[in-house]
Amino acid sequence: MGLGLGVVSEVSAYRGVGTDTKVVPMFMFENSYVRVFGPNLDLKLPSAGPVSFALTAKYDENGYKASDATELQGMAEREGGFWLGAKAKWDTPWAELSATALGDASNKSRGQQLELEASKSFGLGNRVRLEPHLALTWLDSSYVDYYYGVGAGEAKTGRAAYTGTSTVNTELGLRLKTNLAPGHMLMMDVKHTLLGSSIKDSPLVDRNGVSTVFVAYVHQF
After folding, report:
1. CA distance 195 to 197
2. 93 CB contacts (<8 Å, ≥6 apart)?
3. What are the beta bridge partners of residue 217?
4. The domain that contains 52 carries what CATH number?
5. What would the pLDDT profile of 129-157 be if each residue is shown by its tens digit?
């Protein structure tokens, strides 16, 4: 089990919205039945050889308020929500492969998403572990239209009505873990997400990609 604090700094894809930096509490716990890491919860299911399965839940803070930027004035609020689904992980000699399917349990976007990820962890000395990772995330049309679409009543000069369609984001990143001392761990995750074409084409978006930096200190018991 671990407790700590993290800092997340994320560039927004929306026009006029800059970088959001916030402090988040960290809680880590894992046993034979459950794994908790921050806002993510996995209920472990029986494995099949090298493939493990779990039911999963997470909270997604995506969305905006019209007050977040001048360019968003006149838009209705888009809210984040809870997502439920299932995941599978397959440990191979050369990488860990995973697939996660999620649906919007909060019924905000009524969307669905599917993420395929490959990662490889290796040691750098006795205290440091590095983990490069690559992920492809398919977002259905309901998700894209809710967060990046513009309804007829929201359109105005310079912001045409727009209906989002399904798309695929590509994420490249590097995770780092280092043991500062027994029971004291520092974690970092730096990643860049290349936005899918249906998101980039939205009149609400002015970037081809967004970057996120996450740093956390955790005291392990």
Report:
1. 7
2. none
3. 5, 186
4. 2.40.160.40
5. 999 999 999 999 999 999 999 999 999 99
